[in-house]
Give the backbone structure.
Amino acid sequence: MAEEALEKSGVTLREAGPLDAVGDVLPSYVALPESVEEISALLRACAEADLAAVPVGGGTKLDWGAPPERCDVLIDTCCMNQIIEHAAGDLVVRAQAGVTLEALADRLATQGQELVYDGPFRADATVGGLLAAGTAGPRSFRYGTPRDLLIGITVVLADGTIAKSGGKVVKNVAGYDLGKLFTGSFGTLGVIAEATFRLHPLAAERAWVQTRLTPAQVQDAAVRLAAAQAEPTAVELDWPDPSGPVTLAALVEGAAATRRAQTLLDEVTSSMPGWWGEAGEGESLAEVRCMPDRVGGVLAALEGTGLALRGSPVSGRFFLRGDGAGFVPVVAGLREAGARVSVLASPYLMDRWGEVSALPLMRRVKERFDPGRRMSPGRFVGGI
Amino acid sequence: MDPKLIKDCVHCGFCLPTCPTYVLWGEEMDSPRGRIHLMKQHTDGTPVTPEMAGHFDACLGCMACVTACPSGVKYDRLIEQTRAEVERVHVRDPQERAVRGLVFSLFPYPRRLRLLRPGIGLAERMAPFLERVHPSLGAMAALAPRVTRRQRLPRRVRARGPRRAVVGMLTGCVQGEFFPQVNAATARVLALEGCEVVIPPGQGCCGALSVHSGHEDQARRFARRTIRTFERAGVTTVVVNAAGCGSSMKEYGELLAGQPEWAARARAIRTVDLAEWLAELGPAATRHPLPLTIAYHDACHLAHAQGIRAQPRALLSAIPGLSVREVPDSAICCGSAGTYNIFQPEAARDLGDRKAKSVASTGAEVLVSANPGCTMQIASAMGRAGGSIRVAHTAEVLDASLRGVPL
Amino acid sequence: MTPLAEFITALHGVASGEGEVITDPVRLRTYECDGLTYHRATPGVVVLAESATQIAAIVKLCNRYGVPFVARGSGTGLSGGALPRTDGVLIVTSKMRRVLEIDLPNRRAVVEPGVTNLAITEAVREQGYYYAPDPSSQQICSIGGNVAENSGGAHCLKYGFTVNHVEACEIVTPDGDIVVLDRMDPGYDLLGAFVGSEGTLGVATKVTVRLSRTPEAVTTVLAAFASIEQGGQAVSAIIGAGIVPAAIEMMDALSIEAAEAAVACAYPEGAGAVLIVELDGPAEAVERQFAQLTEICAQAFELRVAADPAERAAIWKGRKSAFAAVGRISPAYIVQDGVVPRTSLPSVLASIDRLSAEYGIKVANVFHAGDGNLHPLVLFDDAEPGAGERAETVSGKILDLCIENGGSITGEHGVGVDKSRYMPRMFSDDDLDTMQLVRCAFDPRNLSNPGKVFPTPRLCGEVPGVRKGVHPLVESGKAEQF
Ligand SMILES: Cc1cc2nc3c(=O)[nH]c(=O)nc-3n(C[C@H](O)[C@H](O)[C@H](O)COP(=O)(O)OP(=O)(O)OC[C@H]3O[C@@H](n4cnc5c(N)ncnc54)[C@H](O)[C@@H]3O)c2cc1C
Ligand code: SF4
Ligand code: SF4
């Protein structure tokens, strides 16, 4: 009956293989829709047969979030790879969810523009995956996270309803902003089918500066950089080994970038540090958020743990990664120190999301959007 | 109330943050926008209720809203018309009526006012009693300042150096009685700057207090008398050092619009504020240094009603050694506003306290304004808070500098 | 007793302070409208709220008696968002205006909802910070209202809107619970959904905003052009050159005339359009951009550069007072807030011109040119029979133009009651129904500012999840659920 319903939807299907596992859950089918309407037909079919579905883009972060309670169909957006419109004069681009960030960047660069994102998987991730995971890169310090750059979205709900909000103008307050709601929702509310972003001109000039500091020096240096009128676009730290020094780096863009950068830190480099914006390798991975004036505390809590930290002390957003069960108590310790920790991937059992004050409201949102619990069930906070 | 004037209000709310009563209470009905709305309700047929009258009474008439309004709403005209209307149609409760009656029989008359002066003693002795009868009366007694010595002014003061102009000078009822030293300083400054100053005796109230309280008939009577006095004195320019008087004299034309002949006579006389006049005239006398830090307070009837903000600052800043500090939230009234601290003692006190805090934050030694009512109000609020500050009128500071004596 | 009367009686138990509950009819009427005066309704009762706990208690009472509530900040909204309900309570935040915390190391301030937008900047200006979103009404509009409307301003071209500068919000939900929505928390971005929801998802009771560092250099340029077309070309050229100014504002001859009458801003005489371009950032970058800008604006017959803050304020004064100033040249007017893609500006402005001629209705244009946010002021004389209707028609057609060009019916003023009827022109039933799912999650009883934003309310059904097990194709989402 399941197969029949799916077949009827007319969407290309294939049997799932071991590489299609979401966490440790293996779906039965992989569906390859080519249009918004096909996603809608597919989800209607899933509804009819009560099949659970998990959308996937580049698959770069499929191991992020809790494994789903169940997963019958993996919805692969790889065939939704059209850049629908690049209105260069308006600094706006509209793209299907499966467009990879690399393809998008190449296209935009021909007009001297970019979608500001320099976080993890900036080549292979897709537009839809970037939004669903809500990842932020270093330059979000000045330009905002993908949520701030998104100006319009088309989504398909669990019952097949196609809905859009926003539009293709940068300024728009008509109706609720579904784009914000879907950004970072880990596929639990529906499938992101298309997105429209505001763009920025590519900076004519760029310079990175860096320095090495002891962990105790980082917070003050970061607070100073954040307030600097030379306006760094990003300030990042890399701390691969928490018994050693911290590398602090800043990026300056635009006119006179090099000269402005020199006023910030001592060592000017023209190229991007190799670790810039990457989450890094490790068995477990968590996103740590804290206020800039708690960065010192976070670093102190990590000293000697053997885990690595990378991220922005000015935005208060880091990736923590490492191997071994020692990860679990460290997460608990960081939460105690006032940080919010979201465990994105880990083989160990622990509270992945910590306390979320608005969880009851979030559950109600989920119940309204996906009453049948078919969209990536259980992947997100509170088992949503 | 002129519905045309009411219609100019587009309900944008830009006037709210400068309205002292809105700043205090955060209520629409006690904001300019709300009061205009109440006026509209009335012109649309709602009778004046005690609540409505209360919100009009609570207006200080500071005209900060006129300055703030981008739409050019003539709130000054509107509130005057409204006050007159309220007096005409609204029956106040007996106690309130008695208090108002007493105040309006005292204030516009110099001789009666004199009775209130401390030193004469009546006020001090009566204060506790008055307080019990009605807080407003207590406030009135508490406000009356001490005066050390009466100074009689000559009828004519000769210009020092070459004569550059002949001007009349208004002595004002409150100014003349309570702050004679300010009038003396004004006359000297004018003379030192080359003006021949004509000071007709027997001047009374210019009518400002009456206009601001809705007593239009009384106001017109005072206006006509004042015009006549200066006509007889043969001057066409009258210099005024009290902000409230200046602003209402500048509006004689409108006040007397119903009597075209008088309106024309009103327009034949040019009223100028002291600072406005001196700035226009340009300096002639030497300024001696006054090593002082002062805070300049914008009196509402100068800054808002007459739009005179830059001139006094420029005059003061030009004194060598003197540094002028800006008072935060300078556009907001200090709460003294004519008879306001008499009728709305609590609101007046709250506003005074706020202003006192702002003034204290400047760290200045002397508080200067063009309205002794304001400086008195602020100084007493600072006193309540356990601080103190010297006060002076702009004229006194200039006088000290021109004569080379310490303030 | 009516539910409202019972509610009012009960209200005295939670709001007992002096002057907190307004029931006097004359006073109530002063709250009958916001900045958009042609929608009016006298509120059933007004509460001047003092705290979040008090608002929570009031909202709980609303639930008990089935009484709708509307939040109001300073009442400057231009879409009738704060239009009261005659059968409901108006919760006014104008007494909740304390700046609770200024935290410069974390570049944040925590404020009560009634604090005005400008008051935040004033509280931190001396320390070299400011709050970036700057609606023209900034001296009076409340931060709660800004959050509800996702307000923008001239400088939002570079810095984004309210939603990009709010870090957290404490809200009273439509059930009467106090909940914190924080950008830092994992989970759905409910903060992002709440900002711009026009008071339909609850009442903001505490707002944490991000503070920005005052830029090292600011250059404000006033460029006068012979025609609006030339001005429009300059705008495109600036963006095309890769410059992102802090602001690009444009005014046409009619709005210049109004501003001139109001504040004597002394803009160059004979200008068909003026552009205000503000560049800010590191001094060197600003200098370079200024050089580019001067070249781009070669067609301008006068280029005025502000030399100091006073001159900058003088340039902005005309622009910031332009709306209200139109009162000086026209007895009545309608402000629209449509948005078009920047590149469509010239053609849309030309079409507006044609509409204006066709209907004999003057339209003054003053707008955020950088992001295509038009503010056509449709002028008419309400004493002239039929003029109001014609103005209404012109203004509706302008919105149609915006939609046809891929834009929006509102860029910053919100939908409110005024534009809810245009929503179906921009969104499908499914779009609107999906948005209303959010509403149902927050406010299943439809008590929080009902009748705003959406043309037809969706009935939420008391038990969410009722669709479980029901054939989904039957309930394809179009049908309203009972
Ligand atoms: C002359 C003028 C110029 C303007 N210029 C601009 C501009 O440049 N940019 C711009 O964006 N807007 C502008 N506006 C519109 C208006 O100022 C903004 O929409 C502002 O945010 C409204 O704030 P307020 O406090 O007056 O809100 P109100 O008008 O009182 O309310 C607006 C909406 O917010 C809701 N609300 C208020 N407080 C809360 C709260 N605490 N919690 C939940 N909901 C709440 C209300 O229910 C209502 O729906 C202008 C208005 C005027 C009159
Ligand atoms: S005159 Fe002063 S007190 Fe009266 S409404 Fe205007 S600003 Fe408020
Ligand atoms: S500023 Fe002027 S137009 Fe605006 S509400 Fe106040 S009085 Fe009315």
